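Students often ask what a 'structure token' actually looks like in practice. Rather than answer in the abstract, let us consider Germin-like protein, a protein of 250 residues. Its sequence is given first.
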Amino acid sequence: MKNYSADHPGSYSCQAWSSVWAPNLVHVLACSALALVVIMAAMTSTMVQAVDPDQLQDFCVADLSPTNPVIVNGFPCKPSANVTSKDFLFTGLSTRATVPTTGIKATATFATVFEYPALNTLGISHARLDFGPGGVIPPHTHPLASETLYVLEGTIYTGFVSYEGVLYAETLKVGDLYVFPKGTIHFQINVGTTHAASLNALTSQDPGLLFVANQLLASNIPDAVLETSLGINATALKYLQASVPPLEGF
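Now compare that with the structural description of the same chain:
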């Protein structure tokens, strides 16, 4: 193997140092420490992008006023002099939503920054899911967040599809917890005979919500693209487009 240090006298490697100074333990430890620092720096540069950016202060209750002229990634802060303990209290998850947010015997009650302004900059939100027997939350993604689901009541079959196209799914009972990695397609269905409910936590104040069927079939993607991509003719595509349930409440 070609020796870079031999051709470049001004450069030194750990191997070169150890050959000159061996068996100098100080240099061996220095080389090991340098390698460790490089590895940790690489890991840190990856991990810091995992969730919403860290806040620069203890709280920043969102100012959702439509007249606020400031445009930022998130929301400007409500003046701290106007903040009270009530801003940090949210009671909206105590009861289920009254509007079927999927049209398939299921509702989602949200606690994102839009409903709960105190979450602004904190990188977290919640949702309560309620299902009648056979109720479904259709396949969807949260492009900005990972999610956990904790079963409060009933029996829920849920899962996600990995980036490799593998389905990971389980039937959950009361007290069970399941996690959906960021951006993966996932779903829920009540497989019991009674009401089911869950409490979900997400790693973003505004995780985003994209329903697969609606994004694909109820958008303005040209029919020719969909027909070719799905391997179907125009008649079948029209049938599928007409069959997608409406998402009331969105």
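One point worth highlighting: The helical segments are 4-7, 14-21, 25-47, 212-217, 223-230, 234-243. Ask yourself how you might have guessed this from the sequence alone, and why that guess would often be unreliable.
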